Amino acid sequence: MPLTIATWNINSVRLREPIVLKLLREKSPDILCLQECKSPVDKIPTDGFAELGYGHMIARGQKGYNGVAILSKHPIEDLGNKDFADLGHARHVAGRLENGLTIHNFYVPAGGDEPDREKNVKFGQKLDYLTGMRDWFHAEKPQKSVLVGDLNIAPREDDVWSHKQLLKVVSHTPIEVAHLGETQEAGGWIDVTRRDIPDGQLYSWWSYRARDWDAADKGRRLDHIWATPDIVNAAHGSYVHRDARGWEKPSDHAPVFASFDV
Fold this sequence. Notes:
By secondary structure, the protein is α+β, with helices and mostly antiparallel strands. It has a single domain, classed as Deoxyribonuclease I, Chain A (4-Layer Sandwich). The chain has helices at 17-27, 46-51, 121-139, 163-166, 174-187, 192-196, 213-216; strands at 3-9, 31-35, 56-60, 68-72, 76-80, 92-97, 102-107, 145-150, 190-191, 205-206, 219-220, 223-227, 235-240, 256-260. A 6-stranded mixed β-sheet has the order 3-4-2-1-14-13. Helix 3 (121-139) packs parallel to helix 5.
């Protein structure tokens, strides 16, 4: 029986509780990983999730910023979190299902607007965060694991609407792509989404600034699902639920899905 995992930067779980419930009702993933919850853990509206069968949650939160949560239909053990780059931010949480599958949920720093760590502290924090992830995966090689989240980097040329125009824009600069590649290599992670959908433009984020985001379609693939080599052949059915970007009071991100026969 496949286990379906979805990841979604919700941009405030309390403000957008109605569309989280809509996704759970309509798509019913076994696991939903949320980023940018912008809520203390005790303020996350869990009652509605539990009514739909998601009676298990592990999360890290803070008021108004960041925050990650894993909603699950199945019991999940809290494996803790890492504070890479010592930022004091709620950006990571990990859990283990009863079948032994470990799930990492990450919200990598966005990095501000200027891709220069000397001029922009936030960009330096982003690079340092990725370096911390890389070093951890080198030291503790993950096994039977899935990594999901808003990694805030669109690594491939066809992960953005214009490779040439975005080369100097934060999220697609060569230095960010290199850092993400090193992090991926350190853990032996395989990009499940691009394994299932190897060719063509693919996005999971569209700016609020666009009057008609759908028609303009100037997107970026910032949200990712990776797996370790020992389970990657069990992965299938990846897709971006693009329609959710057009729901009422939407996040600027769309959910990304993958299934695993584990």
